Amino acid sequence: MGKLVLAAKVSHVPSLMLSETSDSPLRQARAGAVAALRELGRRAKEREVTTFVVFDTHWLSNFGYHINANAQHRGSFTSHEAPHMIQDLRYDLPGDPALAQAIAAEAQSHGLKVLAHQVPTLGLEYGTIVPMHYLNSDGWAKIVSIASPLFTSIEESRALGEATRRAIDASDERVAILASGSLSHRLWPNKDLGPDAWTTIASEFNRQVDLRVLQLWQERRYREFTAMLPDYAVKCNGEGGMADTVMLFAALGWDDYTGEAEPLCDYFPSSGSGQVNVEFHVS
Ligand SMILES: [Fe+2]
C-alpha cells in the first residue's frame, strides 16, 4: 500500500533563486527559505519518498483540472510572466504516470472534470520547478504536477485533494505532497515596484491575517482554519484561489487533521505577497 510520508506548504517565488545569484541585490535575502526547502528535501529523502505530488497554484487553468502525467519532465524554462527573473532554468525529472492517472481516475469517479496528460511538450510551471530545484534537483524522486483551475470552488478542489489521498493510499508509492503557493497574494502595483517591493507586504490586513493563520496552524486549530479558508482565499487575494492549500488540507483529512505544523523558516513578504515553508506532520 502507498503512504503519505510528508506534507508541506511551500513557497515558489522567483526571489528564492535570485537570492542565490551572485550579482543580485537580493543576494542571500531568502537564505532562510532556501534552507527550509533544502531541509524538506532532506527529510523527503530520509523518509524514502518515491513521488512528489505538487499542487501548483502557478499553473492556472481555465477549463477543468489538469495533471501533468508525463513519464519524464524535461525542458528549459523561461517564465512568460517574469522572464527577467527566471530564464533558461533546466529541469530533467522523472514523472509518475501511474499515480497521475490514478488520481485523475479517482477524481473522475467522483464527478470531477479532471484530465491527466501525457504530452511531451506539456512543460512544468515554476510553482513546480522552483520547489523541485531545491527538493529534488537531480530527480531522485518522481513528480506529479497538478494545476489550479481559476473557475472552480473550494468544494471541487477539496474533492481533488481527497481523491489524491485515496489514490496515494491505493498506490505503491511513498508520497510527499507539496502545496506550492503563497499565503496572502496581493502583489505591489506596477508603479510601486522597486527594491522595497521584494521585502514588503502590499496589505497590512493581509499580513495580520497570514500571521493569525500561522498561529492557528501552530496551535493545531485546523477546524477554525478550514472554516475561515473560503473567506481567507477571497479577502486575502489567494493565489489560484488558495487551491493548493485546499487540496493539501483535503488530503490531510480537512478538519479531522490533528498533526503538528512546523514552520521551517520565518514568514516573509515577496513582491507584496506572504510566504512560508511549513511542514504538516503526518503520522
Ligand atoms: Fe506564484
UniProtKB/TrEMBL annotation:
InterPro entries with a match to the protein in the record: HPCD (IPR011984), Xdiol_dOase_suB (IPR004183)
Enumerate the spans annotated as Extradiol ring-cleavage dioxygenase class III enzyme subunit B domain.
7-280
UniProt keyword terms in alphabetical order? Oxidoreductase
Which Pfam families does the protein's record reference? LigB
EC number(s) recorded for this UniProt protein: 1.13.11.15
GO MF annotation, one: 3,4-dihydroxyphenylacetate 2,3-dioxygenase activity
Q: What class of enzyme is it?
A: oxidoreductase
The domain of life for this entry's organism is Bacteria
Coiled-coil zones: none
The molecule here is called: 3,4-dihydroxyphenylacetate 2,3-dioxygenase
